[in-house]
């Protein structure tokens, strides 16, 4: 299987704080990989480096064999990496379908005044973009909300829209940052089904997630960080039985669930 993402001995320092220390792991094409660990373990920092928000202090990140860690993010996105944000980056004053069109625009370079005129159905090309956006909304079960302002959506629907917007860029690799945070049980199961369907559509997925039921049920492989270091890597089954992971993270998570 082809390696899509290769993280090689990445260290990130913020002044005296070592957020990541010599972390290495890889993601193969078609996999769902989970990056887990306690608060402050360095998960978001790793995501930010993979999406080129800032560069690592040391080490390399390769995507499809190409070194990307020193590229600006506007050059990384067109290579096929897209992400969602924990604090949601949807445009609240746009409608649901317009948000998806913004995602498509990143790929098609259809200009944004085009997005507005396309709503009026002006050209065939624009009509096609609109229909594709509707297909994406259907895929994410958001089609009935297509003309609603994003500001009127519940948190659960906003998380779906954030996911749909990132998917609309047609990435090879999709980074999902705590996509299930704040969701109830049924919304979390819907999210987990969607993540699997997105993988089936040919997208490789890397998730940062605290919901262990979700992570254990969807991931092929887990990479565990603690205090900036990788302390384990393996299948969900291997990780659940790993003493170091239980001591650093899973033990505390289980206690939290019991309380
Ligand atoms: N911009 C920054 N400047 C200084 N320190 C930072 C910065 N970003 C992160 N850190 C520090 O790096 C460490 C790792 O943080 P990071 O946010 O990557 O952890 P995390 O695993 O994502 O945590 P959480 O689960 O709480 O989101 C922490 O000690 C954090 O305080």
UniProtKB/TrEMBL annotation:
The keyword Chaperone does not apply. Pfam families: ABC_tran (PF00005), BCA_ABC_TP_C (PF12399). SMART domains: AAA. It comes from the Bacteria. The keyword Nucleotide-binding applies. One of its GO terms (molecular function) is ATP binding. InterPro entries: AAA+_ATPase, ABC_AA/LPS_Transport, ABC_transporter-like_ATP-bd, BCA_ABC_TP_C, P-loop_NTPase. Coiled coil: none annotated. Residues 5-252 form the ABC transporter domain. Keywords: ATP-binding, Nucleotide-binding, Transport. This is High-affinity branched-chain amino acid ABC transporter ATP-binding protein LivG. It comes from Sporosarcina ureae. The gene is livG.
């Amino acid at each position: 299987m082809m390696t899509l993402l290769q993280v090689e001995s990445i260290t990130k320092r913020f002044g005296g704080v070592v957020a990541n220390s010599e972390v290495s792991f890889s993601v193969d094409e078609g996999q769902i990989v989970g990056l887990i660990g306690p608060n402050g373990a360095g998960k978001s920092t790793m995501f930010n480096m993979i999406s080129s928000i800032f560069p690592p202090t040391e080490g390399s990140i390769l995507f499809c064999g190409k070194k990307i860690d020193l590229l600006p993010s506007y050059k990384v996105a067109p290579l096929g990496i897209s992400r969602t944000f924990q604090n949601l980056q949807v445009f609240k004053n746009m409608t649901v379908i317009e948000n998806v069109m913004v995602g498509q625009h990143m790929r098609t370079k259809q200009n944004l005044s085009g997005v507005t005129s396309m709503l009026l159905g002006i050209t065939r090309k624009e009509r096609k973009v609109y229909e594709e956006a509707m297909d994406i909304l259907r895929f994410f079960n958001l089609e009935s909300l297509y003309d609603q302002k994003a500001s009127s959506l519940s948190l659960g629907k906003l998380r779906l829209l954030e996911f749909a917007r990132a998917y609309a860029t047609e990435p090879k690799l999709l980074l999902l940052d705590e996509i299930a945070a704040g969701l109830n049980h049924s919304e979390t199961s819907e999210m987990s089904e969607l993540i699997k369907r997105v993988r089936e559509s040919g997208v490789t997925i890397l998730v940062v997630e605290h919901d262990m039921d979700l992570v254990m049920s969807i991931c092929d492989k887990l990479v565990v960080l603690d205090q900036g270091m990788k302390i384990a890597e393996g299948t969900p089954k291997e990780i659940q039985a790993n003493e170091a992971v239980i001591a650093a993270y899973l033990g505390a998570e289980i206690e939290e669930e019991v309380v």
